[in-house]
Amino acid sequence: MRASGVKWDLRKVDRYECYDELDWDIHWATEGDCLARYYVRVAEMRESVKILRQALAGLPGGPYENLEALRIAEGPKSKWNDFEYQFAGKKIAPTFKIPEGEHYVRLESGKGELGVFIQGNNNIFPCASRFARQILIICKCCRTF
């Protein structure tokens, strides 16, 4: 859509995560052909590098530990191979209850908007879930013209 003259990006529209704290632009073109899509995609990749550099510059400094690197560097007799440290680097998947009702969330993905619809029943498993791409954005853009 950005290659067809629509200047739309959910990271700017919904202002989620920390994207509104970073300096970045929406790249778009008006030609609407494959070459325009290519140019927009290349410009978006360059803009992603710009976003990453700003995000890395904003990370706080200080000491950190990479337990896996220590384990590999010390070899098979490392204390990090002991049973008590076996699961230190493994994270348990988060579980949360999905409230009863219907829920829709949209986010920006590599190829445009990704919509996720979940129907919950106050359990950790959804009753139904569906994924849709670019359906909502087309409807919204048609209303604005």
Write the layout of secondary structure elements.
Layout: H1 10-13, H2 34-58, H3 67-74, E1 101-109, E2 112-120, E3 128-133, H4 135-144
Antiparallel strand pairs: 1-2, 2-3
Based on CA atoms alone, the radius of gyration comes out at 22 Å
Biggest β-sheet strands, sense, barrel: 3 strands, antiparallel
Number of strands: 3
Shape: flat
Distance between the termini: 14 Å
**Whole-number total of structural domains:** 3
Tell me the strand order in the biggest sheet. 1-2-3
Q: What number is the mean pLDDT?
A: 78
Low-confidence stretches: 135-145
Task: Count helical runs.
Answer: 4
Strand content: 15-25%
Share in helix = 25-40%
Structural class based on helices, strands and sheet pairing: alpha+beta
- What order do the SSEs take from the amino end to the carboxyl end, as H and E? HHHEEEH
Written overview of the protein:
The chain starts with 9 loop residues before the first helix and ends with a helix. The protein is α+β, with helices and mostly antiparallel strands and 145 residues long. It folds into three domains: 1-64, no CATH class; 65-92, no CATH class; 95-145, no CATH class. It has a three-stranded antiparallel beta sheet with strand order 1-2-3, covered by helices on one side. The protein has helices at 10-13, 34-58, 67-74, 135-144, and strands at residues 101-109, 112-120, 128-133. Strand 1 (101-109) and strand 2 (112-120) form a beta hairpin.
